[in-house]
Every structure is written in C-alpha cells, then in structure tokens.
Amino acid sequence: xxxxxxxxxxxxxxxxxxxxxxxxxxxxxxxxxxxxxxxxxxxxxxxxxxxxxxxxxxxxxxxxxxxxxxxxxxxxxxxxxxxxxxxxxxxxxxxxxxxxxxxxxxxxxxxxxxxxxxxxxxxxxxxxxxxxxxxxxxxxxxxxxxxxxxxxxxxxxxxxxxxxxxxxxxxxxx
Length: 174
Known about the structure:
The protein is α+β, with helices and mostly antiparallel strands.
C-alpha cells in the first residue's frame, strides 16, 4: 500500500500565496523513531507530557511533541524539524502538478509557511490537526479539576480559621 500524501496550497497573504506543496508521510519506522526522539528530547529538556496527552493516544503525543519542540535545545530540535520538512516537496509550476522536487531554502519565503507545512505534516501522520488536538487538550485541562489548586484553597481556608481561633482571647469569647 502506498504512503498517504496530500497537496497543500498556501492561501495566506504574503510571498508564498498560491504555492503548492506535496506532503508524503514517513514510513512507520521513521515516524516511530521521530516520535521517540522527540519525547526523549522533551524529557531531556525537563518537559512533562500532560496526562491529557497520554490519555488521548499516540496522535496527541505526536501533536504535543511537535508543539513542544520549542522547549528543546537547538541541537536536539533541529534534526526533528528538518525531518518534518523532508516529507515536503514543492510543485514549482502548479500548471504541471506531476513535477515535484525536494524543498530548498528559497522555496519558502514566509516563516508562517514553514509553520503551516510542519503542522500539515503532523496532521498527515496522525490524522488530527495540531490546532484541533491542542484545542481538545486545552478543553480537557480546563474541565479537569486540579488537585493542587483545590488543596491550596482548602489549606488557605483552614489556616484562616486557625488564625481566627488563635487570635481570639478567652476573655472575648465568654
């Protein structure tokens, strides 16, 4: 069976508007190696993968990992970012979509284009858009009560009550 691919046309205003790119998914082995190195790099950087991402499955972990690459040291992140763009080819002349070639630096002129292409690569591999996955994780985090914030509120109430008891003199209570 052939690997999945998709055509992405840049519609954002700017120098890349109208450019077409073809994205082709990595092999399963390459994608697994990429995700493993991303998680190891995040761990090395001290980033914890949230429970919501772990509960949401591999797609969410990959989406989280792609976004959290900004937490990594450049030597760890650069090869991962480059591998994402290795999945992308440009269609230099949209009237001849069968002609594609590997990207070179001058093919993209806007940073936003690179970010969009990387997000599309994640979506191609996971079946989920990075924006949608992050939105879902954010909603799950908002709905889940935090144990630390609850215990802080309770301990604050207790200490206020204890403070009131200790500042009251026996003479004023009788």
